[in-house]
UniProtKB/TrEMBL annotation:
Keywords: Signal. This is Outer membrane protein beta-barrel domain-containing protein. Residues 1-20 form the signal peptide. InterPro entries: Beta-barrel_OMP_2 (IPR025665). Residues 19-188 form the Outer membrane protein beta-barrel domain.
Length: 212
């Protein structure tokens, strides 16, 4: 677990240090956080709704030209999906829905283009490292949590996606951003019950941050 967390952090530090050798004053480091609305896209599942969670992390903006930058990030991202309950006379004492929690350390590496001063669009690959998996039958209260260990999991430990978004940065360093990330690879492992299921992560994010 510690190795999964340290690997993307070291990647961000190494990438930033490499570019800093040429123009350290131009590089900005920052923090960010926001709200996640996540689900999975699949024709094999019905009645799936988005899970609401949060994201928080670090980023660096590395200018290439006046309007073009590279922005690597490392962030915790709470993802997964909700399954709405239809049969109220079931064996579980549940709330209105069951929450499947898939939490990742996400490492997007974005190309950022400024359209006008402060306003930018961004796109690039995102690499996800699963750090936690849990089934929650009572997401609106304590209890009902069933943690899924690696040996019992049907979900892959690594995920890839493509992130598309926009941001506005104010002169004082604060910024707001919105982003959509759609999965490029199936989340389920081969040689399991769901090996024929085509399911990919889908994630909306809105948030704020500050660049130093």
């Amino acid at each position: 677990m510690k190795k999964l967390v340290l690997l993307p952090v070291l990647f961000l530090f190494t990438l930033t240090s490499t570019f800093a050798q040429s123009d350290s004053k131009a590089i900005q480091l920052g923090v960010k956080g926001g709200v996640n609305f996540s689900t999975i896209t699949s024709d094999d599942f019905d009645d799936l709704e988005s899970r609401t969670s949060f994201n928080v992390g670090l980023l660096a903006e590395i200018p290439i030209t006046e309007r073009l930058s590279i922005q690597p990030e490392v962030m915790y991202s709470g993802q997964g999906f909700d399954v709405r309950e239809i049969d109220q006379d079931n064996a579980f004492d549940t709330d209105d829905n069951i929450e499947y929690q898939l939490d990742y350390i996400q490492v997007p590496v974005l190309v950022k283009v400024y359209l006008v001063k402060g306003l930018s669009v961004e796109a690039g690959p995102q690499f996800g490292f699963k750090i936690h998996e849990e089934l929650d039958f009572q997401p609106n209260s304590d209890g009902g949590d069933i943690e899924i260990n690696q040996d019992d999991s049907y979900v892959k430990d690594f995920d890839t996606g493509l992130a598309l978004g926009a941001a506005y940065k104010f002169d004082n360093g604060f910024f707001v951003n919105g982003r959509y990330t759609f999965g490029l690879t199936d989340i389920f492992k081969d040689d399991t019950l769901f090996e024929t299921v085509d399911a990919k992560n889908a994630l909306w994010q809105v948030g704020v941050g500050f660049m130093f």
